[in-house]
Structure formats: structure tokens, C-alpha cells
UniProtKB/TrEMBL annotation:
Keywords: Membrane, Transmembrane, Transmembrane helix
UniProt cross-references to InterPro entries, sorted A to Z: UNC-50
Subcellular location: Membrane
Name of the protein this chain belongs to: Unc-50-like protein
One Pfam family hit: UNC-50
Similarity field: Belongs to the unc-50 family.
Protein topology in the membrane: Multi-pass membrane protein
Claim: Membrane is one of the keywords in the record: yes
Taxon lineage: Eukaryota, Viridiplantae, Chlorophyta, core chlorophytes, Trebouxiophyceae
PANTHER family (alphabetical): PROTEIN UNC-50 HOMOLOG
Cellular component, GO, one term: Golgi membrane
Residue stretches spanning the membrane: 74-94, 101-127, 218-237
Organism for this UniProt entry: [Myrmecia] bisecta
Length: 249
């Protein structure tokens, strides 16, 4: 959201983001206050038309006067979906109840939330420290990226990655786990597409903010992914076998 001016100074984004937390957390325990219909629509748009999804971010700013969502439905649904998919993997590949519980908890708390917190914090810091446009007029209100918005961007980017690396990978796992060149190519391509799309959506999320510039830096990891892909294929590295071996041995 745009910070308001108090005593001639701009109120910074992190403070305003913190003020959202009580309402945000309160709505988590009140499912009736969550807009599930809009959330599922947004998830669909992130997969088929991500620019449409971020156009609605601008509408949200106009109506709520903040960029970040005040509805935790997206995070809650993602947690449920990740836990469900991780349970399916555990039923298929795990050999113990306690190990399965730890794997599901790790998928939700570490892979989605903790890693997301770290990525959102890095993006929030990078955007506020280096990418904000300089105010050419002294009377202009200084704008900052809200941390909650940065986390929203991560969540938005994570959902298509979840579809590819949890759902599609699980369905294709009998093929992807073969010890063959074709399986390695398909597995590495799946991971490359998922990770590249994740960073592309990060780019769209930050470029939707009119007070940022040079947001193409969020596309730089895509170049690294494309450069690493041929080496992974030529070395017969199989991303699916490697990932599942970490979780299930």
C-alpha cells in the first residue's frame, strides 16, 4: 500500500504490513471470512494468464488502498494442497508413519513457508533498497514494497510450481524414475520449466508495482536455469530421482 504522510515523513511499508497481521491471522481461524471463490479463480489465472492475475492486484490497491492481500485464503489453501500432495508421496514412497509425518510437516513448514519467508524477505529487501524509483518531486509520497506483498508474490509463484513439481511429477513418477536418458531429460525439463515459471511470476509480481524499476533482475535466475539444463542432461542427472532420494532415500 502507499504509506501515508505523518508529520512530513512517509510511514514505511514494513510498519503498515505489520499492522495487517492481526486481521490476517484472525481470519485464518474464521474460514467464513475467506474469499475461497476468488482464491481458486486467482490460482487458475496464475497458471493460464498470470498478467490477468496481477492486473487484479492493481484493482485491489484501488479498493483496499494496499497492495498485499488481507485474506489468508491463498496461504491456507496452498498449505492444505501441499500437505495432501506430500501425504500422497509418503503413501507411495515412505516406509514409516513417523517419517511420513515429518515429511509432510517439512513440505508445508519448511519448503513452502520457511523458504518462502526467506525468498520474500530477500525480494522485499532488494526491491526497497535498490529498485525504487527516485522521487523527482519533493512533495511526492515515498512508496515502499510491503513485506506481506512480497510474501503474496512468493505464494502466487509457488502455486504453478506446486502443480508441476508435486502433482505432475507424482503422476509421471513411474516414467521419471526410470534409469534412462529419456527419463532424465523429461525430469530435468520439468524442473527447469517449474523453476523458470516461478521466477517469471516473481518478476510479474514486482513489475506490477509502478514505483519500482529494473525489475528484470528477478528474471536473472531463469538464465542460470537455462544454462544449467544442458549440463544436467549431458551428465544424466535426474532431478526427480535426486529430489525423492533426499526425502525417501
Amino acid at each position: 500500500m502507499l504509506p501515508t504522510t505523518v508529520n512530513g515523513t512517509a510511514r514505511r511499508g514494513p510498519h503498515r504490513s505489520t499492522s495487517l497481521l492481526p486481521t490476517y491471522l484472525r481470519r485464518i481461524i474464521k474460514p467464513k471470512q475467506m474469499d475461497l471463490e476468488y482464491t481458486f479463480w486467482l490460482m487458475l489465472q496464475l497458471c493460464i494468464s498470470p498478467k490477468t492475475a496481477y492486473r487484479h492486484t492493481s484493482y485491489h490497491k484501488q479498493t483496499k488502498n494496499q497492495w498485499a492481500r488481507d485474506d489468508p485464503a491463498f496461504v491456507v489453501i496452498c498449505c492444505v494442497l501441499v500437505a495432501t500432495a506430500a501425504t500422497a508421496y509418503c503413501v507411495t514412497f515412505s516406509d514409516g508413519l513417523w517419517h511420513s509425518v515429518l515429511t509432510v510437516a517439512s513440505a508445508v513448514l519448511v519448503d513452502f513457508l520457511l523458504v518462502g519467508w526467506a525468498i520474500a524477505t530477500a525480494g522485499w529487501f532488494l526491491a526497497n533498497r535498490f529498485l525504487r524509483k527516485k522521487n523527482v518531486h519533493s512533495h511526492a509520497i515515498e512508496q515502499h514494497v510491503e513485506w506481506m506483498y512480497a510474501f503474496d508474490v512468493h505464494c502466487n509463484s509457488y502455486f504453478p510450481l506446486f502443480i508441476l513439481l508435486y502433482v505432475v511429477q507424482f503422476l509421471l513418477s513411474p516414467l521419471l524414475l526410470w534409469r534412462s536418458f529419456v527419463s532424465a531429460v523429461l525430469s530435468n525439463a520439468l524442473y527447469a520449466i517449474a523453476l523458470a515459471y516461478y521466477h517469471y511470476l516473481n518478476f510479474l509480481g514486482y513489475s506490477a508495482l509502478p514505483f519500482l524499476e529494473h525489475t528484470e533482475v528477478f528474471l536473472w535466475p531463469v538464465a542460470g536455469i537455462l544454462l544449467a539444463l544442458p549440463f544436467a542432461v549431458l551428465s544424466s542427472f535426474n532431478a526427480t530421482r535426486f529430489t525423492l532420494s533426499i526425502y525417501f532415500g
